[in-house]
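Write out the bound-state structure for D-xylulose.
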Amino acid sequence: MTYFESAPKIQYEGPTSKNALAFKFYNPEEKIGDRTMEEWLRFSVAYWHTFTYDGTDPFGHGNMIRPWNHLKGMDLAKARVEAAFEFFDKLNAPFFCFHDVDIAPEGETLRETNKNLDEIVDMIEDYMKTSKTKLLWNTANMFSHPRFVHGAATSCNADVFAFSAAKVKKGLEVAKRLGAENYVFWGGREGYESLLNTDMGLEQDNLARFFHMAVEYAKEIGFAGQFLIEPKPKEPTKHQYDFDVATGLAFLKKYDLDPYFKFNIEANHATLAGHTFEHELRVARINGMLGSVDANQGDPLLGWDTDEFPTDLNATTLAMYEIIKNGGLGKGGLNFDAKVRRGSFEPEDLFRAHIAGMDSFAVGLKVAHKLIEDHVLDDFIANRYRSYNEGIGKEIIQGKADFKTLEEHVLDMREIKNESGHVEELRALLNQYLLTAF
Ligand code: XUL
Ligand code: CO
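---
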């Protein structure tokens, strides 16, 4: 059976194509430096937004027209798998991602849920034998069901902690079976509503205990994928413990978990934390902790996680700048944790949206690579910090200076000369590169 009848296999047609169902900039085989676009970008389709999301929002019912809408239960789950692999193939997607509850319905008990999961994982495993699409990561949804009302690993209720552990145990087994490159922890309800009823110290200690158990179990079953923490400051909780990369890193270091984790950085989570996307990528990169990316964008006028497909070329360029400087994403990828707008309810919109995101990151890759190749920012920055290459600056860097020698250096200095940072010139330069790269 065909689910997306109107969609052909999406081909690269170049920047002047007028075909909505074609790539204009993403040309998977095109070499950018030492790698192809496909190798650099490692695009992934998010199962939940593409095959599970029905358009429901806090004010309105589901409205998405989907070829599987008439089905229920396991029949629905199976149809979605069939549709998913048709979609991956037509889009030429190298990866996908899912939560446990996205792929199979929950039963009355975890035993029943796991049975459903096993049946669907069997089916996915079969499809993966002939499909090029691999599993970038899976994760456990520990935020939707009412049992997680007070959190999962940070719940005040030890039975919920145990239930969460059992879910992640199963998730790691599925990850191992399907050859997942990573395993993600997004603590949607690992935070608090009010400090009046919260033992923050115990909750964070428990979260660390939980992560150590996950590390141990992965070792035990021989799952070699990368563990990723996905920071988000708020929503659904008022305060989430994995607030941003810096907060997450302090947590990992405090509990000796940093050797086992990297970060999965989501653009819209960065902006909710009051940072730019590139800021979060930079903090992770300079600390050797950049693992993967949830590629989306927020809306500057809305204060929540709108999960839009990324089309802002400034943002994709600056993101790809960090990723290239990182030497690529390793086992990570660019996962479209993005949903079509509620008004884009036709099945074909799923293709149009992914094409928009893939083309936008392809532009970002090409422009960022050219910026790096031309040493534009590197030369500027090297010159800006040149005072550390000689004299007192060199002594500071070499650890030869102390407060006394530094005082001596400035005590009789009459004037300190600074130079302009030329921010506007650099922003214009970025525009120039964006407009001339193709
Ligand atoms: C929620 C979010 C999640 C994670 C996986 O904001 O980003 O979908 O990516 O649980
Ligand atoms: Co995400």
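---
The chain has 16 helices and 14 strands.
Residues 407 and 413 are 10 Å apart (CA to CA).
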